[in-house]
Amino acid sequence: MRVLVAGRTGQLAVELLERLPRDGHKVVALEAPELDLTDPESIRRAVEQAAPEAIINAAAYTAVDKAESQRDLAFAVNAIGAGMLAAAAAARDLPFLHVSTDYVFSGDGGAPYDEDASTGPMGVYGESKLAGERAVLAANPRSAIIRTAWVCSPHGANFVKTMLRLGREREAVSVVADQHGAPTFAADLADAMARMLPRLAAAPAGDPAFGVFHLTGAPWTTWHGFAEAIFAGAAARGHKVPRLSAITTADYPTPARRPADGRLQCGRITRIHGIEAADWRQSLSRCLDALIGPQTQNS
Ligand SMILES: NC(=O)C1=CN([C@@H]2O[C@H](COP(=O)(O)OP(=O)(O)OC[C@H]3O[C@@H](n4cnc5c(N)ncnc54)[C@H](O)[C@@H]3O)[C@@H](O)[C@H]2O)C=CC1
Questions:
Q1: Active site residues
Q2: Predicted ipTM?
Q3: Contacts of 116 (CB under 8 A, 6+ apart)
Q4: Predicted confidence pLDDT, tens digits, the chain (299 residues)
Q5: Omega before 33 cis (within 30°)?
């Protein structure tokens, strides 16, 4: 199948470019200026020229803290732009795969969120992504949206790479231990999308294959727990690691508030698409192999 991917250098787009051809798909991955989600004409032209059979939106404004002072840009990309791309897919009766975030939730629910839980974003990024979900679903009934969280990969900017850098630069690192969720490796997300595509391509509007799904890695942890695993893996590969201490969110103020408990129940994607949450510890190990090299010691 010919698949148009919006985004080319982002974490997810890079993994899609690697994963989709393995299923025989031909991928056209574009980002600005060829496909700029804030430019309707570029969207029209890109879709016309690529003539895809499915469209995946891996592009987004992802600067969570900056979004607090760039509301218009965050909404232009994540809400209006996502909606325009979904509409361009709908005009050709194409399935549309889109990505959203645990930041659509407030994080004070006291339990993991399922796909039907009430939303209540606490910052501009989450608001823009929630508006994007609504715009996408309104524009194209053949849309599947995956809410995910804590996305990491060997490419781009992410927590794993930040921890490895801090480990090299500092003797001690403090990480928040009171925000709960789960890391998601972009390769696992790309794999899930590849597995969903054939059914999405065949299913008519109204089929349960479409709608909102949750997918993160498993098991749930905290940022501190994730940092512990990163440093254990790094040490086993002979990488210098710092002393790690646990702090609270109150000790580490950021412009945007983050959900204290952004754990996502991933049941619907398992029931409908047969996709299970991947164990992020194994995916972390592969990511560290790519970033540092293979393990040299038992951990
Ligand atoms: N990174 C994370 O921790 C999380 C990401 N997500 C979502 O997952 C999806 C993929 O995220 P990542 O790959 O991590 O993001 P990323 O930040 O690595 O890549 C985003 C891509 O979008 C492109 N882009 C930005 N503005 C654009 C525009 N106006 N037109 C076209 N392209 C544009 C960028 O150039 C970049 O290639 C996004 O929808 C994001 O909101 C959800 C939860 C957590």
A1: 125
A2: 0.98
A3: none
A4: 999 999 999 999 999 999 999 999 999 999 999 999 999 999 999 999 999 999 999 999 999 999 999 999 999 999 999 999 999 999 999 999 999 999 999 999 889 999 999 999 999 999 999 999 999 999 999 999 999 999 999 998 999 999 999 999 999 999 999 999 999 999 999 999 999 999 999 999 999 999 999 999 999 999 999 999 999 999 999 998 999 999 999 998 899 988 899 999 999 999 999 999 999 999 999 999 999 998 876 54
A5: yes
How far is ligand 1, taken at its centre, from the CA of residue 233, in Å?
26
Structural domain boundaries, residue 137 = 2-158+183-217+264-278
Report which ligand 1 atom has the smallest distance to the Cα of 159. Answer: 3
∠ Cα 150 192 284 (to 5°): 45
- DSSP secondary structure code for residue 286 in this structure: H
CATH of the domain at 16: 3.40.50.720
Within-domain flag for 291: no
Q: What is the C-alpha separation between 225 and 43, in angstroms, rounded?
A: 41
Number of folded domains that form the chain: 1
Query: Chain centroid to CA 39: how far?
Result: 23
Question: Which residues have a Cβ under 8 Å from the Cβ of 58 and sit 6 or more positions away?
Answer: 5, 6, 7, 10, 12, 13, 16, 29, 99
Rounded distance from Cα 161 to ligand 1 centre (Å): 17
Q: Is 9 in the pocket of ligand 1 (CB under 6 A)?
A: yes
